[in-house]
Amino acid sequence: MSTTGGIKVFSGNANRDLTQEICNYLSCDPGSATTERFSDGEFNFQITENVRGGDIFIVQPTCPPTDAHLMELLIMLDAFRRSSAERVTAVIPYYGYARSDKKDRPRVPISARLTANLITTAGANRILTMDLHAAQIQGFFDIPVDHLFAAPAFIGYYEEHLLPNLTVVAPDTGGAERARAYAKRLKSSDGSPAQLALCDKRREKANVAEVMNVVGDVRGRSCLIVDDMCDTGGSLVKVAAALRTAGADRIHACFTHPVLSGIACDKLEKSAIEQVVTTNTIPLRDEACVMENVKILSIAPLLAKAIKSIHEETSVSSLFV
Fold first, then answer.
1. Are residues 103 and 171 in the same domain?
2. Cα gap 120→92, rounded to integer Å
3. How many domains does the chain contain in total?
4. Angle at 77 between CA 73 and CA 307, to 5 degrees
5. What is the CATH number of the domain that holds 248?
6. Within this chain, do residues 145 and 168 fall inside the same structural domain, yes or no?
7. Is 201 a catalytic residue?
8. Do 199 and 270 fall into the same domain?
9. For position 5, what pLDDT does the model report?
10. Which of 8, 201, 238, 267 is catalytic?
């Protein structure tokens, strides 16, 4: 397994467009398989080509409907394991259930660990994922995990679209390390280094956030909010409102995973955010596709390079930036 031609990339139903893009970069066709459903909704999967001894990559983000897409991934992994594939890598650009990564309240599950156990038991030999909600989720797996970041795509975009007096903003204290990494690599339009600020956020319950205050001077500056995902949009909108109250001149936001559930798109359109930049780790909802202030960056080149490196047994570390 040392040539690009030997790679076999298969896809579930979660994000076929991304799989096709990856295959285009790898100069190969998506693997042949049946990914239909029985009349009662059960997933009907069959591999329709020989995969014995093959190096298999299954592209399947566990995005909404999360349970259905996760079950598809498990069934596909089982099928390849039983078909004598040499190695099966689960390419999970968006890892669902990642927010439940610790027992922070009484009588709650650690769903991120349970999901990791299911994927491993189903037959995955390796995991390739991107911008996990919490980096420690890598430790939930007893198999190798390659954890990529969308930062190169975002930083490349903002290097071409410079903002004046740039301040990179972490929406909460947990995102400070991510925001600091962006601030170190980005500059304002006048060439000066980007500054760093963060919001002190208190979350009373799931999907409800309250921004308490902004730490750092953002008055008269262009603020770039950096996050790993946007679900309901509540946190992002409240952070933007807090920045505006603190005197920010312009507000942009970028996040890797555009979950955008419920009325998130409506919230973002009515918010103080001038532009939203995200990626195609998961398909964009129809409501988001028509938003004028949304820019989509493709992470297919990053994933394709990682897949090629894994296949050829070369270092993937150059992509961990």
1. no
2. 13
3. 2
4. 85
5. 3.40.50.2020
6. no
7. yes
8. yes
9. 45
10. 201
Neighbours of 40 (CB within 10 A): 5
Q: What is the pLDDT of residue 204?
A: 61
Note the pLDDT of residue 285. Answer: 81
Query: Domain check: are 155 and 292 in the same one?
Result: yes
Q: Domain span at residue 134?
A: 4-149+300-319
Distance (Å) of CA 154 to CA 28, 182, 224, 253, 301: 27, 9, 11, 10, 13
pLDDT, tens digit (0-9, with 9 covering 90-100), for 91-118: 999 999 999 999 989 999 999 999 999 9
Beta carbons of 90 and 119 less than 8 angstroms apart: yes
- Let me know: does 38 contact 71? Beta carbons within 8 Å: no
- pLDDT tens, residue by residue, 37-55: 999 999 999 999 999 999 9
> For position 2, what pLDDT does the model report?
39
Nearest to 176 by CA among 199, 155, 204, 148: 199
Instruction: Tell me the C-alpha distance between 164 and 187, whole Å.
Output: 9
> Same structural domain for residues 133 and 185?
no
Looking at the structure, tell me whether residues 108 and 162 fall in a common domain. no
- Phi and psi torsions of 29, nearest 5°: -95, 150
Same domain flag for 130 and 172 = no
The pTM of the full predicted model, rounded to 2 decimals, is: 0.93
Q: Indicate the Cα dihedral angle 240, 243, 249, 255, nearest 10°.
A: -40
Pick from 282, 279, 273: nearest CA to 296: 279
- Say yes or no: 310 and 290 in one domain: no
Strands 43-47, 33-37: pairing kind: antiparallel
Nearest to 218 by CA among 272, 153, 293: 272
CA distance 134 to 131: 8
Note whether 130 and 303 are within 8 A (CB).
Answer: yes
Measured in degrees and rounded to the nearest 5, phi and psi for residue 286 equal: -55, -35
Residue ranges for the chain with pLDDT beneath 70: 1-5, 202-212, 288-290, 320-321
